[in-house]
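Hi R.,

As promised on Friday, here is the backbone we talked about, encoded as structure tokens. Could you run it through your design pipeline when you get a chance and send me back a sequence?
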């Protein structure tokens, strides 16, 4: 089976060395020496002199901490085309998600739909998602938010290490939040990073430390701190990040070459203007009418594990269908039913990429063959080749 996820964490000998200060100081959590070194290194790598990194227990806790630090309550606009964590963090912070449709080309919050929504409903913040970690310029969303006087927060869970046009990744909105989960490119097991201006870092650190500041509890908070062990793995993973991203980019290039006949016919669509993302996965949009679930099942039977990320759409889930308005989200519906994600690992040999592409192509051919009778019920399947 070609697995969808194959985490490449740094081997223990690489990160054990980074743990020494924790043992020397008998200090294993609560902003210990390894944590602070990790925070400094991340700030140097991604802060560009204007933002600092706050390592957190996971991206979901990081997002909640940012909302708490900004004291956001009431309605918060989020896409429905995202992982459940985005909206769960909004609920955890004591706010209510208000779902907005996404753009059919960028697959991310649509500035026009957002403009319309904010003009008809009041909201206190907007959380956008860098879908699949793709790295686009968020300036258009920033201007919509600025016009309505609400902060933009960016769920960049899968985008750490990426770059793109316009506002640099990590620097859009008031804060960007990244995940270090085992399924992401910068994988340490469980962890996250908030990248924000220094003045926001203080309330974010308070929010992940039970609301403590200067010995007093001054606001609501959670325990969202990162341990010294996780920080040590993070320091070792940081040393290898650029190499991992380069390997993943080469994997995606080869997939696109192998799958070019399908791409040229428009039967699958690759991400438009993706920037230089870390490529956690290669998301592909199937032509309307292609049964994504049947395709996924066929691939699994053939030995290729695909995933349908962001499916089902959050506004269709049992919990979240009770939130927000009875507003149609047609683009979200279409994307959710037709998005399929290919496995991308940092260590995929060309032969494995070719094998995955061949299995995918065969399954796609079979899926088309199977669907033919639905469209032309009078024809027999013998004609459908
Ligand atoms: C992975 C992911 C998260 C959750 O990250 P954790 O570190 O596991 O909390 C949140 N949002 C998106 C878009 C993700 O892909």
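Update: got your reply. Pasting your designed sequence below so it's all in one thread:
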């Amino acid at each position: 089976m070609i697995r969808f996820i194959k985490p490449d964490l740094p081997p223990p000998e690489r990160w054990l060395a980074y743990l020494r200060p924790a043992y020397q100081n008998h200090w294993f959590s609560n902003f210990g020496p390894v944590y602070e070194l990790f925070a400094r290194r991340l700030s140097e790598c991604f802060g560009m002199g204007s933002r600092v990194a706050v390592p957190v227990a996971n991206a979901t806790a990081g997002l909640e901490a940012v909302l708490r630090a900004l004291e956001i309550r009431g309605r918060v606009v989020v896409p429905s085309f995202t992982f459940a964590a985005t909206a769960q963090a909004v609920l955890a912070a004591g706010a209510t998600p208000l779902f907005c449709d996404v753009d059919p080309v960028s697959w991310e919050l649509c500035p026009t739909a957002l403009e319309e929504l904010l003009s008809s409903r009041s909201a206190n913040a907007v959380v956008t998602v860098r879908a699949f970690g793709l790295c686009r310029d968020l300036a258009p969303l920033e201007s919509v938010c600025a016009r309505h006087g609400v902060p933009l927060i960016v769920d960049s869970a899968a985008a750490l290490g990426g770059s793109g046009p316009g506002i640099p990744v990590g620097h859009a909105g008031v804060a960007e939040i990244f995940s270090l989960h085992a399924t992401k490119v910068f994988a340490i097991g469980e962890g996250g990073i908030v990248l924000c201006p220094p003045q926001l870092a203080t309330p974010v650190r308070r929010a992940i430390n039970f609301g403590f500041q200067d010995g007093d509890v001054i606001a609501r908070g959670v325990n969202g701190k990162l341990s010294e062990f996780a920080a040590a793995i993070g320091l070792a993973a940081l040393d290898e990040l650029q190499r991992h991203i380069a390997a993943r980019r080469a994997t995606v290039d080869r997939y696109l070459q192998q799958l070019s006949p399908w791409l040229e016919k428009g039967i699958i669509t690759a991400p438009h203007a993706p920037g230089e993302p870390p490529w956690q996965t290669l998301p592909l949009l199937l032509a309307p009418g292609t049964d994504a679930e049947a395709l996924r099942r066929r691939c699994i039977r053939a030995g290729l594990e695909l995933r349908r990320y962001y499916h089902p759409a959050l506004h269709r889930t049992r919990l979240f269908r009770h939130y927000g308005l009875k507003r149609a989200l047609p683009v979200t519906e279409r994307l959710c039913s037709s998005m399929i994600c290919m496995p991308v690992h940092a260590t995929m040999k060309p032969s494995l990429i070719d094998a995955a592409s061949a299995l995918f192509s065969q399954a796609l051919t079979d899926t088309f063959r199977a669907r033919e009778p639905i469209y032309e019920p009078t024809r027999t399947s013998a004609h459908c080749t």
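One thing I noticed while checking it: The two ends are 28 Å apart (CA to CA).

Thanks again,
M.
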